[in-house]
Amino acid sequence: MSTRWIEETFHPHWRVALEASEVLHEVKTEHQHLVIFRNETWGTVLMLDGVCQLTTSDEFVYHEMMAHVPLMALEKPKNVLVVGGGDGGVLREVLKHDCVDKATMVEIDRTVIDTALEHYPEIPGAAFDDPRADVVIADGLEYVAKTEEKFDAIIVDSSEPIGPSAVLHTREFFADCKRALAKGGVLVTQNGLPFLFPDHLAGTTRVFASLFKRVAPYMCTQPCYFGGPFALNFATDDKSILNLEQKVLAKRVRKRGISDLKYWTPAVHSAAFALPAYAEAVVTEAIAAAKAGDDSAYASTPAPAPTKLARKTKKKPAEKKPAAKPTRAKSDSQA
């Protein structure tokens, strides 16, 4: 039998192909092409419309940096909201903090959870069964707009600002998130690959700078997201939490009994906010624009390839559902 190579077609002028040693699930409709397969290097791989969404080999990078950077910055986060993130990875990391009393995950598509439980259950682990987890199947946009709860941290694990997910990158949505934050709370979202798509980072930074006293993008290296370092964005009204010494962060991780991390460390936490010059220039310009009154959100982008969806896109077709069900450093950038 001939070897099958599945291409990453996210970029218009270059491509990467991953070998599929075994195809676990594949479906192609008039709207999208979903394939889940095994690869000797990457483990289980999820690709949607030619875009690598996650791999079990390196998923810990994204999920740890999405969860532990905001939560370690807070002295004692108790109530956390995750918007999206139906694969359960961010929820898993949030629940490692024993100070968290409740972690609400709002996922619009139940099949995202079902797919994770069937094909890569190691990503959610026991997160969906944790009594502190509140899994809500609903539109995250509407949930945040209507909730009366106050959250110490809101983590937006959404797809890129393309198509239906564009609403989770608007000023209106982020303003609702700010309203739902407790005093001194933190809002974090993903900002894609700034070397290739700087407008994504710029747009979010403009909005955050118009809403919060401090905006501080940070970066990590996500191997399966081909195209350079991956950016996330951090916003808060408590400026002091971005000036925490590494010894404070180390004390918090010990006190919370977290010892199984593969990427986040106090040193990595601090260093992540040190941006390379090309990204710092994007951030500086965006903050200046916000101060000048331009707080427009980045709500759309030209697709770099024929696909209509992009990284961290987690919508799946409802054609197949498994039987299993869950019980389920400082930054110099500031506004």
From TrEMBL:
GO terms for molecular function: spermidine synthase activity. Gene3D superfamilies: Spermidine synthase, tetramerisation domain, Vaccinia Virus protein VP39. Coiled coil: none annotated. Spermidine binds at residues 63, 87, 157-160. Residues 292-308 have a biased composition (Low complexity). It comes from the Bacteria. The keyword Transferase applies. Its EC number is 2.5.1.16. Residues 3-237 form the PABS domain. Keywords: Polyamine biosynthesis, Spermidine biosynthesis, Transferase. Residues 292-335 are annotated as: Disordered. One of its GO terms (cellular component) is cytosol. The active site is at residue 157. It catalyses: S-adenosyl 3-(methylsulfanyl)propylamine + putrescine = S-methyl-5'-thioadenosine + spermidine + H(+). Pathway: Amine and polyamine biosynthesis; spermidine biosynthesis; spermidine from putrescine: step 1/1. One of its GO terms (biological process) is spermidine biosynthetic process. It holds the Pfam family Spermine_synt_N. S-methyl-5'-thioadenosine binds at residues 32, 107, 139-140, 164. Residues 309-318 have a biased composition (Basic residues). Belongs to the spermidine/spermine synthase family. Catalyzes the irreversible transfer of a propylamine group from the amino donor S-adenosylmethioninamine (decarboxy-AdoMet) to putrescine (1,4-diaminobutane) to yield spermidine. Homodimer or homotetramer. This is Polyamine aminopropyltransferase. It comes from Candidatus Filomicrobium marinum.
